[in-house]
Amino acid sequence: MKIFYTGVGNRDTPHEYLEKMTALASLLEKEGCILRSGGAEGADTAFENGVRSLYNKEIYLPWTFFNNKVHGYVTPLDLINCIDEILSRVHPNFSNLRESTLKLHRRNVLQILGQDLATPSHFVLCYTRDGAETFTSFETGGTGTVIRLANHYNIPVFNLRNKNWADRFKEFMKG
Questions:
Q1: How far is CA 78 from the centre of its chain?
Q2: Angle between the 99-113 and 143-152 helix axes, to the nearest 10 degrees?
Q3: pLDDT-based confidence at 137, cuts 50/70/90?
Q4: Residue 161: closest CA among 132, 141, 137, 135
Q5: How far apart are CA 165 and CA 2, in angstroms?
Q6: pLDDT of amino acid 105
Q7: Which domains does the chain have, with CATH numbers?
Q8: Would you call 111 exposed, middle or buried from its count of C-beta atoms within 10 A (0-12, 13-18, 19+)?
């Protein structure tokens, strides 16, 4: 069985956390886990940099060549209606999103549910300034959509900003 995880966070994640993310991604790759991320600068790129093989990461892009990325999946047109239905359940301002912003949030659905929208990630590793794992705030930023989706689908979230995340994560991985 493949183990997928979502690795994301704020674009302005502090350097010390970026280093942890890269090391974690490398360790998880050795354990056979497959990263899902979004190709953004900061946390997304840190996770992506930790995974050597293209076969061990799924990078979901809001549009072709986002952040000059040449490897990644762009949201398929035939899934947009289904993705928007899912997104509308968790995004508090869904109906007012501009198309470019909507594309950024659509990739979050794929980061959690996979290309087929039916293969959920087993867990989320992230960083947000407010340490959000369940409740999100303005400070959570775009990562809040991933966190709300994870909660909606009962996927555990481990936010590296929180002091006890590592102990909880180790326990989860033993489980």
A1: 22
A2: 40
A3: confident
A4: 132
A5: 23
A6: 96
A7: 3-174 (3.40.50)
A8: buried
